[in-house]
Amino acid sequence: MLIKTRFAPSPTGFLHVGSLRTALFAYLFAKQKGGIFALRIEDTDRERFVEDGIENIVRSLAWAGLRPDEGVDLDKMGKITQKGNCGSYIQSERLDIYKKYVDELVKNGHAYYCFCSKERLDELRKMQELNKMPTGYDQHCCNLTKEEVEKRVKANEPHVARMKMPKEGVTKFNDLIKGEVEFKNELIDDQVILKADGYPTYHLAVVVDDHLMEITHIIRGEEWLSSTPKHIQLYKMFGWKAPEFAHLPLLLNPDKSKLSKRQGDVAVEDFKAKGYLPEAVVNFVAFLGWNPGTEKELYTLSELAGEFDLSRVNKSGAVFNLPKLDWYNEQYIRTMDLPELVERCIPFLIDAGLVKDYRKLTDEYKKWLEGVIALERGRVANLSQISEALKFVFTDKLSYDAEILVWKKSTKSAAKENLKLLIELLSKKSVQLWTKKNLELIVGEWVKDKGLNNGSVLWPMRVALSGQENSPGPFEIAEALGREKTLERLTNAVKKL
After folding, report:
1. CATH code of the domain occupying 4-91+251-319
2. Which residue numbers are catalytic?
3. In CATH, what class is 94-248?
4. Mind listing the pLDDT tens digit for each residue in 118-160?
């Protein structure tokens, strides 16, 4: 059997990091089994529909490397496209299909039309809550005669279609994560499956689409666990075989509350904007509630696919530990090839106003950027921090207090004198090779010959070049700045003292 999974988000905003995990696990499961991963857009909730919501979702998935084998995707121009033989993969373009299957359910006695007003339903719920009864529809319209239904439909009376749940027995299924799950049918509502506006609800559309698109395994969040018996009953009503289900536990804040935007960033777009690398985010998210059973922590997407096993997904909620994400990102920043890291950093440098038009950047300038970015790559958790940390390199004039030029074991006059001597040394024509290694050698020998303390020379040198108490080493900075700017900053420091 060909394994086929899907991710089916609603375009109601940016992609939630919990939804990214769902998509990732569905993707990994399909790839591990040599199957197909499909992307379907469930946009039937028109009240919550967000303009550009589809594009945002697809771009976020593409950024994370989760390109579908089938369904909604991006073309070479970054525009929405569809591929596969089961389309359309956008639910709002499949309304005729849903109407056909609703009619079939009504005809076979598995669904009925309901004409109850919002006012009646609100009053019903109030009464049920007052009497401490389970809330749900009371099947008021279930036994209307065929003639009455036809008359009211013909009169264009607003109505919905409801599935007719069996009220006896239980609905059981084996969840691939949670094990055997059982629900009493009497507690399950007669769910609306077709709204008055002609759009299906999630419950009908998801069953019809998963069947027609030949989905074999449904991997989704546990918030849909209570809906599963409704879906299983719909499969039975249609005479279809239900797919396998796996419900992922919730993502939690450190205080064990449900992860939500009230506690901070939760959208993939947020982490992307802050300069988190997709490799780090994917690696981090993969380990939220799952582990391969080894000590290894850094995986490529293909390596994750090779190791993924649903049986190793935890049943309990996973804590979203931001410091751990920072750690992952730091590892990738430190180990990434410099030319690639530069390309990743350039958009952030442009946004920070440190670099101008990307199209005008020469290979020589990019090579220089390699040295500049190398200054901070081991000191930051994300790419936006690199931009902030490197401002001192790009500025024409540093602003800092003269006091920080003085090493704690030295004096103001000594700092000034040592900087003057340093300028004299580095201005010599004999200092030809302007590299970290050569500068370190020349200055080191000079300090030794003069009988000076390293701190009394290197501290004011580093502060003069960076304008900061905490910064990369002086020789790394000097190499990145070049001879002219290095000497200029040393001279300006002397003037401050």
Report:
1. 3.40.50.620
2. 261
3. alpha beta
4. 999 999 999 999 998 888 999 999 999 999 999 999 999 999 9
